[in-house]
Amino acid sequence: MTIDKVKAFEALRQAFTTVPLSLMPDFPLPLKLYIDASGEGLGAALHKVQILNDKPVEGSICFISRQIKPTESRYGASQMECLCLFWALEKLNYFLEGCVFGVITDCTAVKSLLHMKTPNRHMLRWQIAMQAYRGNMTIVHKDENIH
């Protein structure tokens, strides 16, 4: 192995051993749901902020992912991100129901999904399913990839 590979491995080992990998949810505290979709699959990560040594540390509760189905491969980027949110809410319902949480996404269309006046049939179904979370969910756009 080269010196660069050894350094990279040691950096990964350090990161994995110093940051809490998996935390138990503390339901009175707000949670963070990170979502992202690509042409290959959907992914989500549920996090919480915990105070360790008088410093806020964000740690993970769980990660989920799946490949997209052949019919979903025809969706546009915005529709794919909305599908990702719907799917993540469905899969993580047992963590999120009744909790205050923020959804962090890189797609501006996800924020407008809840307020669409004339959604297509997929988005209408997703919109109806998300009504259960409306009072507890805030959608935050991160400015990394705008689509």
UniProtKB/TrEMBL annotation:
Residues of the Reverse transcriptase RNase H-like domain: 26-133
Signal peptide (UniProt feature, chain positions): none
Keyword entries, A-Z: Endonuclease, Hydrolase, Nuclease, Nucleotidyltransferase, RNA-directed DNA polymerase, Transferase
GO molecular function list: endonuclease activity; hydrolase activity; RNA-directed DNA polymerase activity
Database matches in SUPFAM superfamilies: DNA/RNA polymerases
Any Pfam family the entry gives: RT_RNaseH
PANTHER family for the chain: PROTEIN CBG26694, PROTEIN NYNRIN-LIKE
Protein name: Reverse transcriptase RNase H-like domain-containing protein
